[in-house]
Amino acid sequence: MTRSPITPVLEPSAKQGTHGKQDDQLIRRAELVISYVLRGGVLLSAAIVVLGIAMTLYNNLMQRSHASDASQAFPHTVGSVLQGVLAGEAQAIIMLGLLLLLATPVIRVAVSIIAFGLERDWRYVGITSLVLLILIVSFLFGLGGGRSSTPEQVLAGQPVSYFALVFVGAMGAGLVGALVGLGGGIFIVPLLTLVFGLPIQVAIGASIVSVIATSSGAAAAYVRDHLTNLRIGMFLEIATTLGALCGALLVAVAPGQLLFVVFGMVLAISAVPLLVRIGEELPTGVTNDRWARLLALAGSYPDRRLGRNVSYAVTRVPLGVALMYVAGLISGLLGIGSGTFKVLAMDTAMRLPLKVSTTTSNFMIGVTAVASALIYFERGAIHPMVAAPIALGVLVGAVLGAKLLPRLSNSTVRKIFVPLLLFIAVEMLIRGLG
């Protein structure tokens, strides 16, 4: 028997009458525009990166240089990237593709302002404009960060199979990240440092790229399929980007190891309420609070697993905002996407269905990461021959994860998320304790 297509419905307690229907239509059109922007940015950046990799392989095959392109100096400013592109340098072309990937969340925010403006949704024009302003301020702080001591010869003599294995590992990280709302970066750092023996600076730079790649790749599908709550994502991005900016400014004076220990302990404790609700499919007894009604945050999503539309309410919005600021602060201080904390904030504090929490987290983590991405780029911590296979692998994994998630139940996603949460907590404690 063929099941009829699922179409989104309005959350009755928050949206009623003609005004509610018009409001919902406005957000649907904005979702489509944002989805197209994300998809276009991802495809174009991936095509440029692949072109640069092909040129690198061709140059090495033809032995046009005495050393492998992967071990040569690479551009780490916008000006040097553009100069290298005009000169036909392979690594500069790869960096151009990576820069476009890093810029995709910012372009998404800017286009969102236009989309909301065309729909005359002035409330979210203001909210999204504030997010863009915070990003611009973070870029100004990131400019002139100076070159770090990242070694140029980290990949000297590595065979093609080395990069293929990096790609496969990144694909797995992107798949898991898309399913449970993480950036994948939390897996990339130990993968590159422990398995592939790369310096921590290079691993963190690639981690930033992986977070943005997961967010852009998965969010394009999630937004199009109405799984993401666009309003919640836009509103909470104010807190998380502001927190990321503050974290980036405090990173020089904050005790890094102590922060890892504290973060690990918080995550471990946070697993307790999740374990209590390990089999929960949908939240029950949740009513919209005053902020949820004012900002029209409640919504619905089509659940393929249940075969129906699921309407949900949103509660404790101020607590969610506070936790999002903390998530952004952690991201800026530790160089991670802090997707785990975002999911916890929406699932535990605001009581969203877990699918909505993970997809909305995916939507947000790219913007949080890009708030500090320019700092890592200017420091030369984003190595093109590491970040390129990471970005491509994560993108492929994120797309696969986005196709798989709608077929899973919320309880299954929770059973995947909790062990990963505990794994990340242990890893944070180990890193903090040296």
Overview of the molecule:
- Helices cover 71% and strands 2% of the residues.
- With 434 residues, it is mainly α.
- It has a two-stranded antiparallel sheet with strand order 1-2.
- A hairpin with a 4-residue loop joins strand 1 (299-303) and strand 2.
- It has 15 helices and two strands.
- The longest helix has 45 residues, at 17-61.
- Helix 1 (17-61) packs across helix 7.
- It has helices at 17-61, 78-86, 90-118, 122-142, 160-180, 185-195, 200-224, 230-250, 256-276, 290-294, 317-334, 339-349, 354-378, 384-404, 410-432; strands at residues 299-303, 308-312.
- The radius of gyration is 21 Å and the shape is globular.
- It has one domain (20-432).
